């Protein structure tokens, strides 16, 4: 009898470990998969290096003023909600897949490959797509060269010590791009915008190193008019 009970216990443990019938604490496989997916997000109470990365990005962009300590407390949650509201995301204070993407952290969320996108000069596929979203949101009505030029400005800022040093950091810097402020950054880019992003990443810079652009008809900042004009492409003036 003892031997039969031992065998039964061993079989039960094997089944649980294999995930055949019970994946996590007696959950059916589908519920267990949902639990695992939920565990991949960050929320109040989370800790670790990913939380620290979120805090660093939000602090750099002006959404967060607390300590970068890797502890997802109430102040971090408040900053995440602020960021989500500004970027047209569900403002739940939870860093899930969409918020990971907006933060430029798709690799951490398991949403994209960490490998380089083919033919894009070392940039990742998520960076290509994010730049395409920015181009589409900012300049989809412009000629192709004008769309590449907007992408080039983003990349010129990445290289400049005066701006964040990542594509996502530049795009989501507080107040930097109208498309982020009004939510158009979340529109799905067309193939033209994707091609323009790739061309910019491969080195085409129609702006000759510009860090700024504006539409002189709609611009309201007097400061932007003080920048030195380098070229005009379509409706945009590009300046340094």
Give a written overview of the molecule:
It is a single chain. This protein has 240 residues and is mainly alpha-helical. It has three domains: 2-39, no CATH class; 49-94, no CATH class; 125-239, Cell wall hydrolase SleB, domain 1 (Arc Repressor Mutant, subunit A, Orthogonal Bundle). Helices cover 49% and strands 5% of the residues. It has twelve helices and three strands; from the N terminus they run H-H-H-H-H-H-H-H-H-H-H-E-H-E-E. It has helices at residues 2-18, 29-39, 49-60, 74-86, 97-102, 106-109, 125-139, 144-159, 167-171, 178-181, 191-201, 222-225; strands at residues 212-214, 229-233, 236-239. It has a three-stranded antiparallel beta sheet with strand order 1-3-2, with helices on one face. Helix 7 crosses helix 8 (144-159), helix 7 (125-139) packs across helix 11 and helix 8 crosses helix 11. The longest helix is centred in the N-terminal third of the chain and has 17 residues, at 2-18. The protein is globular and about 50 Å long. 32% of the residues are buried. Mean pLDDT is 80; it is low at 11-39 and 109-119.
What's this, in brief?
This protein is mostly helical. It has helices at 2-18, 29-39, 49-60, 74-86, 97-102, 106-109, 125-139, 144-159, 167-171, 178-181, 191-201, 222-225, and strands spanning 212-214, 229-233, 236-239.
